């Protein structure tokens, strides 16, 4: 009977120690800039890294591990489209998961292009001015003759 008790104790002890030493996320905040999700948070003492996963609905779409310095961590995700996403973070070695929901918007900035339309407009305007000057000079020369 003692052997059975010792066996049970050996099987249960690692789980009890792990549960007692799990380090949890104290706080998690996220902000959005267009389609970029920036996050930061605070861990309980003893954590060196945090794992954050980004979900679109129930589908995991990206993950990122962040170093913990002075119990603080931060990072960012970029997404392809506007929408509502869930960000879940936990201590890298386990612990409770903290979750926040964020909604991204489309970037409203115009993309830069290699289009040189302003150069063509300037060249065209300059050419019209030069042609106008030449026409005026030639017309005056004809009148003088």
Commentary on this structure:
With 145 residues, the protein is an alpha+beta fold. The protein has a single domain, classed as Macroglobulin (MG2) domain (Immunoglobulin-like). The protein has two helices and seven strands; from the N terminus they run H-E-E-E-E-E-E-E-H. The chain has helices at residues 2-20, 117-144, and strands at residues 25-33, 36-43, 49-56, 59-67, 72-78, 83-91, 98-104. The chain has a four-stranded antiparallel beta sheet, with no helix packed on it. The chain has a three-stranded antiparallel beta sheet with strand order 1-2-5, with no helix packed on it. A hairpin with a 2-residue loop joins strand 3 (49-56) and strand 4 (59-67). The longest helix is centred in the last third of the chain and has 28 residues, at 117-144. Mean pLDDT is 83; it is low at 16-20.
């Amino acid at each position: 009977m003692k052997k059975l008790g010792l066996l049970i104790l050996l099987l249960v002890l690692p789980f009890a120690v792990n549960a007692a030493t799990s380090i949890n996320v104290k706080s998690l905040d996220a902000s959005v800039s267009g389609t970029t999700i920036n996050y930061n948070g605070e861990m309980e003492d003893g954590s060196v890294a945090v794992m954050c996963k980004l979900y679109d609905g129930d589908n995991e779409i990206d993950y990122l591990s962040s170093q913990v310095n002075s119990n603080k961590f931060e990072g960012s995700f970029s997404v392809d489209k506007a929408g509502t996403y869930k960000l879940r973070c936990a201590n890298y070695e386990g612990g409770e998961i903290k979750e926040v929901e964020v909604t991204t918007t489309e970037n409203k900035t115009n993309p830069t292009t290699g289009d040189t339309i302003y150069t063509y407009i300037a060249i065209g305007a300059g050419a019209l001015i030069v042609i106008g000057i030449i026409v005026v000079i030639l017309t005056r020369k004809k009148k003088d003759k």
